[in-house]
Amino acid sequence: MLQMRPGCECCDRDLPPDSSDARICTFECTFCSECADRQLASTCPNCGGELLPRPRRPADKLAKYPASTTRVHKPDGCKASC
Predict the structure, then answer these.
(1) Which of 10, 29, 41, 44 could be bridged to 49 by S-S, CB 3.0 to 4.6 A?
(2) Residue 81 falls in which region: left (phi positive, over 0), alpha (psi -120 to 50) or beta
(3) Which domains does the chain show, CATH number per domain?
(4) Neighbours of 25 (CB within 10 A)
């Protein structure tokens, strides 16, 4: 099941489960659209994978399948992988 992490790894911006602003790779690394587009060129800095819009979980499923509360943040910022 998709973790739906609560924030951007680069800037720590909140990304609630219903956010259309979240971008993820196949490993579920999570970024806001601004960091994904402007800093990372839609490429995950961790694995080199493509960053795509994260699907939104229907509100009625969040009670049974809640989003993750574990934040992953890189205080030094993110840099695109080479």
Answers:
(1) 44
(2) beta
(3) 1-67 (3.30.40)
(4) 21
